[in-house]
Specification:
single chain; 12 helices; three-stranded antiparallel beta sheet
């Protein structure tokens, strides 16, 4: 009778199942299911830093440059990012938690008519046409009201991102097909969403699974009751074990004890939102220390640095690196949890990773 996996098994499994052999860009996004986006570029955006480990000959900006030709969409799941287009049917038509007031509905209808007539538009063109002015943003500052309205129309499924120009979203009108809104149809979509996040982030501590399902309220707020029901069912159907008081879950058709999860000798600098390290609760359980993303922490209070990239060597996250690039040259700074490993193997692995990073940042 098979025995339960150990924490060592889960650690190797967590690394190997998502750091698959590099493939094509469409195949990598399809296999990941979702790639979290972030606008900070230090030295590249999070989506590029995530994809470079999983796509052959990937360069920073490739996703943005090829986006319009891919069956990929910018949209929301548990946060904002990129996902295969077929996943949109699980969440759209999206019903936002807060309805618009009459004035916002009027403005949105005017903008939608303008976009339909004109075709793909830059937010600047919308502002020039309608002069919506400024508004108080989430952080207490002032932002462009037209940009905010376009973002909200995108979220509600009236617009899609057609492409980006120098990082700015270019929007076009879109109409999502009606969904099966029967109780059974809603339950199927909710179950598929829960399966999607489990397959992306497994193995998951029980508390993280609950948290992720709650975050589905961002991508599918109208399915919150169904995703909670799907969570209860998933707890019964997923494979699981209990280690040191924590219950872990993973897909029933996967085996954390498999020899296929034997780690390689590469060193990898990971994006702060890479699926290997995204779940900070899991990170602490698997690697025994706490990693923090500190880009929004005052400089004087930072422990790791502005944009610290977790340093994964074999199956251990042994430290972090800040890797600014100035005048085309990397200027890395490293930190280690228990001191820098000694020996030629580590030095060679680190040198190889910095060479890969430099190539990734180089223009084609």
């Amino acid at each position: 009778m098979p025995t339960d996996p150990t924490l060592d098994h889960l650690r190797r499994y967590a690394v190997a199942r998502t750091l698959f052999a590099p493939t094509t860009l469409p195949a990598a996004i399809r296999r990941l299911g979702f790639v979290q986006a972030d606008p900070i570029r230090a030295p590249a955006r999070a989506q590029d830093l995530t994809l470079r480990h999983r796509v052959r000959d990937y360069r920073a900006g490739d996703l943005e440059g090829r986006y319009a030709r891919l069956a990929v969409e910018e949209d929301c799941l548990v946060n904002y990012g990129f996902l295969p287009r077929e996943h949109l049917a699980l969440m759209h038509p999206r019903e936002a938690a807060r309805p618009w007031d009459a004035e916002t509905r009027r403005k949105a209808a005017e903008v939608l008519a303008f976009v339909r007539e004109r075709g793909p538009v830059h937010p600047r063109a919308v502002e020039l046409q309608f002069a919506h002015g400024r508004m108080k943003n989430y952080w207490g500052g002032s932002s462009n009201a037209s940009t905010h309205l376009l973002d909200d129309m995108h979220y509600r499924g009236l617009l899609r991102v057609q492409r980006r120009d120098s990082g700015t979203r270019i929007y076009e009108a879109v109409a999502h097909p009606p969904a099966d809104d029967s109780p059974a149809g809603r339950a199927r979509r909710a179950a598929a969403l829960v399966d999607l996040i489990v397959r992306k982030y497994a193995p998951l501590p029980a508390a993280s699974l609950t948290y992720l399902v709650r975050l589905l309220g961002y991508g599918a707020p109208h399915l919150s009751a169904q995703t909670q029901a799907a969570l209860a069912l998933a707890r019964e159907q997923l494979a699981s074990c209990r280690i040191d008081g924590t219950t872990w879950y993973w897909p029933a058709d996967e085996n954390p004890r498999s020899q296929r999860h034997t780690p390689d000798d590469e060193l990898r600098l990971l994006a702060p939102f890479d699926p290997v390290v995204w779940d900070r609760r899991r990170f602490t359980l698997l690697w025994g220390w706490t990693y923090k993303f500190e880009a929004y922490t005052p400089a004087a209070k930072r422990q790791f640095g502005y944009y610290a990239l977790p340093m994964l060597w074999r199956d251990q996250v042994i430290g972090w690196a800040n890797v600014p690039a100035r005048d085309g040259r990397l200027q890395p700074a490293f930190g280690y949890v228990a001191g820098q490993p000694q020996g030629a193997a580590f030095r060679a692995a680190l040198d190889d990773e910095l060479q890969r990073m430099a190539q990734f940042l180089a223009a084609r």
